[in-house]
């Protein structure tokens, strides 16, 4: 088997404000409710600000009341504190200016009825002004896998600069689908989140050598607004941006899997600073086929008009659509198929017509997208090779599962995830390597990994020498990863005997 390619790097992210309400030591039926908002205006400003929102309810809500506060430094003083001049949504903001990192306790009194509450606040001052980024520094290639919409991307250069990941702007623009322009007149970079990428080909070679990065002084505009707190470096004549800066300011999902040491990106989700995808951007509802409740209805997703339905038998149905629907509809539908448990299997050209066909497989079904007689078609049929019933749920959720014949303590990867076996390579006295088609979803893969852990295996992490993810137990190592140079079409699963 070929070695798994070295991939991309880990992401580090900043910890944000941690807030916890203390129990109310005073009135049992207080009319005050406290909450906190953290506001970071600019990491180059003099100080950052913590805001405590004091909301009044009940009898005090409409009264002419006076609120007073006391601050008790625990391990950090507050430089200044003051009430905002105006109420905001029935709440009065108390604005704190910390001089460093630490914790304070605030006691707020409602003079109307002597109600009191305590609030413990962790305040953060991000070091204003922040230390200036070095004008030149070393950029090292990073090697952690990166997945975009659950698809492995291993051909773009990514560098580690001062423990942060930096991506070429054109690459991330293409992957996250936002517009980028160089304004020659203003000598500035313009990012436009309201327009799609220009479709230019992204990089085709991962970073392999250490480079010298030079700090860029070019202004950065996002949707017409100047962002002067983003650090950008020039490497080989290209702009490289810190990934988290772009994810937050452009707004796309960015997460880091600490167990698998992988980067995950998806522009169908909002940014969330808690190292998870935020809420979905897709607020459009769509329906499913009546005959196949797990398959999204192509017409409801794309707006395409249904021309006719051809039902060969009770298990095979082909839907024909007028091809004049909005651009981008096919890509959106393909993404929904993957999200609904139908991973992409393969693409091929129909010999008789020369038309391209895309095949998706999962949940006991095969979904084929293509053209026939100038009409767009969605062909749904039952998967005869699957050991699940039609329209089953994604993955094997039963407590019972099949194991490998020679290794009864290892759950059968193919049987559990519905992956089709491509080849088997037995190594006498050493173990066996199975190669599967990538016909499973990322959720099925994650579920199988959890099954390994529950069956006495320990995750050892990513082994760079063999370039695979390793689980150990029962005197064997289980190795797994995607086979390189196949666009994730194949997945390697090895069982290696120890000793």
What features would you describe in this structure?
The structure is a single chain. This protein has 499 residues and is mostly beta strands. It has 4 domains: 19-123, Immunoglobulins (Immunoglobulin-like), CATH 2.60.40.10; 136-266, no CATH class; 298-382, Alpha-Beta Complex (Hypothetical Protein Ta0175, Chain: A, domain 2); 413-497, no CATH class. The protein is built from 6 helices and 34 strands. It has helices spanning 169-176, 243-251, 298-302, 329-339, 413-417, 442-454; strands at residues 19-21, 32-39, 49-56, 67-73, 78-83, 91-98, 102-110, 115-123, 136-141, 146-148, 151-153, 158-161, 164-168, 179-183, 188-192, 211-215, 220-222, 225-226, 232-235, 238-242, 253-257, 262-266, 306-311, 317-321, 344-349, 356-362, 365-372, 375-382, 421-427, 431-437, 458-463, 468-473, 476-482, 490-497. The protein has a 6-stranded antiparallel barrel. Strands 23-24-28-27-26-25 form a 6-stranded antiparallel beta sheet. It is globular, with a radius of gyration of 28 Å. The two termini are 22 Å apart. The model is unreliable at 1-30, 37-47, 59-63, 126-130 and 387-400 (pLDDT under 50).
